[in-house]
Amino acid sequence: MAKAGERSARSSVWLEGKPRRGGRGQPSGLDRDRITGVTVRLLDAEGLAKLSMRRLAAELDVTAMSLYWYVDTKDDLLELALDAALGELRLPDPEAADEDWRDQVRALAREYRGLLVRHPWLSPLVGRFLNIGPNALAFSWVLQRVMRRAGLPAHGVTGAISAVFQFVYGYGTVEGHFSARAADTGLSPDDYFQQAMRAVTGTPGEAAVFLAESEELMAARGGDTVKEMLERDFTFALDLLVAGIEAMVARG
């Protein structure tokens, strides 16, 4: 038991037991689901840095103290918001005999990438919390079942999942932050990209050689818009990873 004045170590909102409910005098219609939904909306609109219990309370038209009937800390809110966002993922049926595991892996990868782009605040939280909420566990279970169908030995399943979805995490994080930064400038992603390219075009020396080579590779890649270029790179990289899994299965 913590001594007076000490703060006990926090583990996870999912290890607290049953969600608390409001007591007498608490605002009607207020519950964890509503609080979580508004938290997600604020995070989408204003970002992670601006979220506070006071800001959330104002949006809900309650006092900040009212929120503590339902959560202990701001971290509890963020953990709940993280799992709520994961609930947006459309998960395939891993037992569907007529669906190829490769197509399901690609579909899951695209779902996860899209989620990270829609919610740029999500990626910093993924590595911060335990990810043991109901939606996180459902996602993990489907990933495991789909990847096991590839024919990998049991000891290779989690490594294959890491290879694919750590890539997707990084790709989606960078893409989401790029989109958010462009929006902050008031420019479209294409205009923001072109502005950045013009800014570095006149760089002298070795950097100029690097940029010239980069322009050649970008031209070979194809795509007239940032969206098209990102899509081509993502698709090719994902195909490389799936081919790598196939190769490992073939090695037996």
- What is the average of the pLDDT values? 89
- Radius of gyration, CA atoms, in whole angstroms: 22 Å
Number of strands: 0
* Strand content range: under 5%
Contiguous runs where pLDDT drops below 50 for at least 5 residues = 1-8
Structural class: mainly alpha
What sort of overall outline do the alpha carbons produce when their principal axes are compared? flat
| Fraction of helical residues | 55-70%
Assembly state here? single chain
How is the biggest beta sheet arranged?
none
Q: Note the gap between the termini.
A: 52 Å
Q: What series of H and E elements makes up the topology?
A: HHHHHHHHHHH
Helices, by number, come to 11
Tags for this model:
mainly alpha
Tell me about this structure.
- By secondary structure, the chain is mainly alpha-helical.
- The protein has eleven helices and no strands.
- Helix 8 packs antiparallel against helix 11.
Topology:
Blueprint: H1 32-46, H2 53-60, H3 64-67, H4 74-86, H5 101-118, H6 122-126, H7 134-148, H8 154-185, H9 189-201, H10 206-221, H11 226-251
Briefly characterize the structure.
With 252 residues, the protein is an all-alpha fold. Helix content is 65%, strand content 0%.
